[in-house]
Amino acid sequence: xxxxxxxxxxxxxxxxxxxxxxxxxxxxxxxxxxxxxxxxxxxxxxxxxxxxxxxxxxxxxxxxxxxxxxxxxxxxxxxxxxxxxxxxxxxxxxxxxxxxxxxxxxxxxxxxxxxxxxxxxxxxxxxxxxxxxxxxxxxxxxxxxxxxxxxxxxxxxxxxxxxxxxxxxxxxxxxxxxxxxxxxxxxxxxxxxxxxxxxxxxxxxxxxxxxxxxxxxxxxxxxxxxxxxxxxxxxxxxxxxxxxxxxxxxxxxxxxxx
Length: 258
Prior knowledge:
By secondary structure, the protein is α+β, with helices and mostly antiparallel strands. It has helices at about 50-60, 65-75, 90-100, 105-120, 125-135, 140-155, 160-170, 175-185, 190-205, 210-220, 230-240, 245-255, and strands at about 5-10, 10-15, 20, 25, 30-35, 40-45.
């Protein structure tokens, strides 16, 4: 095993655990660690919001050097090669909005994102997150206008379709949302999240339990059987299809990851 670390006590650490199995090496497990008093504490793993939270917290305490390092790690974890903007305030605001959305405060996120959108209307990531916040905040007409603009600016992008699906689902139009989800999942670009959405929407329509189970199984395969949210969907879909033994086994896996 190897545990290379990058960082410092003042900022925090990114640790990559490389574990070899036989002649092959599994993908590294990434953990973020901070020093609290005399102890080192795991702030979160690569699939958590730990990096965003630490960046925002550092900025609030006036430690912009630390905030910048956390944002660099966030950029790298997202697979972006684009250098971090010299003015990091907009990046911090975007991260703050993401955290607000994850905490179930969409309208507060909207306030932050509208300011960012007005400053740079061509920033697609901001527009997408703003639309999602508007959907969750039930400001549907504003969300629909942004979705229409996204589709016009990039007709080949799936983001407009995904947002339209989320909008319809939030309006309880499950059959219409499921039809769009099927359209997305009929392409090789569909992600585990797309298939997971299709499974839930199919369950909500109450029409075909076996289709929901198949969609959830595909999502589980694409996520390498390691996504708790997908496993939860799969367990529900298996139970709905009356495959109770499989549902019980999947529920145990879900509990282990949660």
